[in-house]
Specification:
This protein folds into three domains: about 170 residues, Uridine Diphospho-n-acetylenolpyruvylglucosamine Reductase, domain 3, CATH 3.30.465; about 90 residues, Alpha-Beta Plaits (2-Layer Sandwich); about 110 residues, Alpha-Beta Plaits, CATH 3.30.70.2520. The chain contains 16 helices and 16 strands. It has an eight-stranded antiparallel beta sheet.
């Protein structure tokens, strides 16, 4: 079975190389990829792209090897398919991002995160080796400590595309026991979060997963997850019940390991409400298999294509909307200040809270190793009027995060001027690595992807 997986992988890489060779010399290189979890614009083009067909699977799961349990995974493999391959072995990746169709290669060249990130870091920190198809049309095998490997996280395809990754796995039992801690004070919540993240336990119980939701000023919830094989009833939040609402109504809960991994995907955190999926009258007839993030993403693309929400706003006389879809990281001690400012200036709730600790330095997303940061995720729109086109709320968020010593992920719109962007994301180093592996500039630069794509 493993031999067949490797054979199919090598055939897919050969197809990829042939598709590169077919692109006229000097033309830009891009992926021929129809789906995306990015929230920033991609330039429309009719030019052919790289053929990544056949690069979306798990090559091999090795439950016991010299590096411990590992998986050999293709770059376009979604975490949904990856988990389907590892969970029967009682194994999962060290970090499983929240949405089913995020790809492993995407999470590594971007920045994935989840509730295990306070102890396991980000997805790229559990990668042992990867093959990168570069702008020069070569497959380069690279490992931690190599310039290409270390610059790859947060490069968003500007250095190439991962075709194969060897990743570490960890053991997980059948169930996840949850405990919800509620706070009316953001300072106490942040202090408690820091203590739990440091000790990796609370009240004598080990904590394997840690995240939270701030529902508004005076209402904050931390969720502590503990892997367990203890039998007991489990909740089902892929049905009529909605996960994020349960945080406000119960102190303890239990999910299967599988349902815990995808607890946020069913309702796209809470964003499914924009399509009526949380209305019990609609939810009853909304097929369970279609309650998932990629379905909502397709609906969102339809809205953007036809301007449905904008037309309804104009008809109702509402001010124009600014889309505020961002994930940022601030040091944990700055979290209360950011939430206070966010309430006063943006006024969007709920927001997701996810602690993380980078295990080492990464040049293109320079978080201080060993320091606890908190990812704050907020996704929606704000009515701002005719100035919406200038993105005043997004620009204010960028300035505030910079002021607080944080960073912003680049999967969505960015508005930095060139000098600020270069300083924040160390693009001088990135450009040097790019010149080595993409000497003819066939791949789009990070700044052009993240900022100029608008």
């Amino acid at each position: 079975m493993a031999d067949r997986g490797w054979h199919q992988h090598h055939e897919a890489v050969a197809r990829l190389a042939r598709s590169y060779a077919a692109i006229p010399e000097g033309d830009a290189v891009r992926l021929a990829k129809r789906t995306t979890n990015l929230f920033r614009a991609r330039a429309a083009t009719s030019a052919p792209g790289l053929d990544v067909s056949g690069l979306d699977g798990v090559i091999e799961v090795v439950p016991d090897g010299p590096d411990g349990p590992v998986a050999e995974v293709q770059g376009m493999c979604t975490y949904e398919h990856l988990v389907d391959a590892t969970l029967p072995h009682g194994l999962v990746p060290h970090v499983v991002p929240q949405l089913r169709t995020i790809t492993l290669g995407g999470a590594v060249t971007g920045l994935g995160i989840e509730s295990t990130s306070f102890r396991n870091g980000l997805p790229h920190e559990s990668v042992l080796e990867m093959d990168v198809f570069t702008g020069a049309g070569e497959v380069v095998t690279t490992r931690p400590g190599d310039e290409l490997f270390d610059a790859f996280p947060n490069s968003y395809g500007s250095l190439g595309y991962a075709t194969r990754l060897r990743i570490k796995l960890e053991r997980v039992p059948s169930y996840v026991a949850l405990r919800h801690l509620r706070f009316d004070d953001a300072g106490l919540m942040a202090k408690t979060l820091a203590e739990i993240a440091s000790a990796q336990e609370h009240d004598g119980e080990v904590v394997h997963g840690l995240d939270g939701v701030s529902f508004g000023p005076g209402e904050h919830v931390l969720t502590l997850a503990r892997w367990t094989d203890e039998p007991g009833p489990t909740s089902d939040y892929a049905g009529q019940d909605i996960y994020f609402r349960s945080l406000q109504g119960c102190d303890r809960d239990r999910l299967t390991a599988y349902d815990y991994l995808w607890r946020w995907d069913t309702d796209w955190f809470w964003c499914s409400g924009a399509f009526g999926a949380q209305d019990p009258r609609i939810r009853r007839f909304w097929p369970r298999r279609l309650r998932r993030s990629d379905v909502y993403m397709r609906l969102l693309h339809l809205d953007r294509r036809f301007g449905i929400a904008d037309r309804l706003d104009r008809r109702a006389g509402r001010p124009e909307r600014e889309r505020v879809v961002q994930d940022i990281e601030v040091p944990v001690e700055q979290l209360p200040e950011f939430l206070r400012w966010f309430d006063e200036e943006i006024g969007m709730r709920p927001v997701w809270l996810c602690p993380l600790v980078a295990t080492r330095a990464w040049p293109v997303y320079p978080l201080a190793p060993g320091r606890l940061y908190v990812n704050v995720g907020f996704w929606g729109t704000v009515h701002v009027g005719p100035d919406a086109v200038n993105a005043p709320r997004n620009r204010a968020i960028e300035a505030k995060v910079h002021e607080l010593g944080g960073h912003k992920s680049l999967y969505s719109d960015a508005f930095y001027d060139r000098a600020t962007f270069d300083a924040l994301y160390n693009t001088t180093h990135l450009a040097a690595v790019k010149r080595q592996h993409d000497p003819d500039d066939r791949l789009t630069t990070l700044y052009d992807k993240a900022v100029k794509s608008r």
